[in-house]
Amino acid sequence: MKKNINNSIKSLAVAALLIIYLNSYGQDKKQEISISLGGPFSYLDYLPEAQVVAGNGFSAGLRYSYYLNETVSIGVGVEYQTYRSDFKSSFLSGQYMTTDAENESFQFRYKATNLREEQNLGYINIPIGIQYETPGTSQLYLAGGFKIGFAANGKYETKIENLTTSGYYPQYNVELFAPAFAGFASTDNIKTSKQDLDTDVSYSATFETGLKQKIGSRSSLYIGLYLDYGLNNIYDQNESKNLIQYNPELPVQLGYNSILDSSKVTDVILVSYGIKLRYALR
Fold first, then answer.
1. Is the Cα dihedral 14, 19, 24, 25 positive or negative?
2. Segment 58-71 mean pLDDT
3. Taking the mean position of all CA atoms in its chain, how far away is CA 18?
4. Strand pairing partners for 268?
5. What is the pLDDT of residue 49?
6. Handedness of CA 69, 70, 73, 77 (dihedral sign)
7. Residues 167, 132: contact at Cβ < 8 Å?
8. Can you tell me the distance from the alpha carbon of 167 to that of 174, in angstroms, rounded to the nearest whole number?
9. Which of 3, 5, 38, 246 would bridge with 59, disulfide CB 3.0–4.6 Å?
């Protein structure tokens, strides 16, 4: 449902911008419409207990601007932005109380060596901002504002070089490292399938500066540097989950939750920066 809502927002925004521009094109030069591409640095940033490797992403967007005078304009648009991060840890461990298939209480323990989690998000952003540009054919410009982003898709995938699981039964003072059918084993080269990653609305501050070159009576080419910096936590942890989830009904099939679900990560924000190219008609 979230995806359908976001697709509707995107379609309505694009349609509105096109209608506004087509109705006004040729009447005056107070309005400008542009298409843009941006990248390459775009990732999830958070406070972990291990290393986070920033990944690459891109943005593609459409923008409508109205000029208050020859140098100042206000604008609104819609864009699609991807984000990617890798969480890496040479060693992670955990333990918690649960029950086994025979409903007997025990402490499930796990040790993960060389764990890596790849996270990928897609967002539909609505940027709103103001731009100042110098007069002339070759113009310097400076733009700023904010964006509101709606999650369109999200996935994560986990890889573990070695996972050792065991069960400690305090009532017997014994720790079991086998049998495997009970969920206790040492397993190499684990790779999970891609799983859904649900994130919240993002609010970001945005900044852009560069050169605007007129290439005709009505067209221009922008090339600049940009920075989008998230202002809010996009991953609300209602309750922390265990990274490795024991399944008493089917112990041989362990669950693998995202590191974002655990208490090991806090304050997840979106960051994007790099080079932005825009082609504009006015």
1. positive
2. 94
3. 28
4. none
5. 64
6. positive
7. no
8. 8
9. 38
Q: How many C-beta neighbours within 10 Å does residue 183 have?
A: 24
CA distance 110 to 265: 18
pTM value?
0.84
Contacts of 16 (CB under 8 A, 6+ apart): none
Answer positive or negative: Cα dihedral of 191, 195, 198, 202. positive
* Tokens 């107070």 belong to residue: 30
Q: Name the token pair of 39.
A: 């990248």
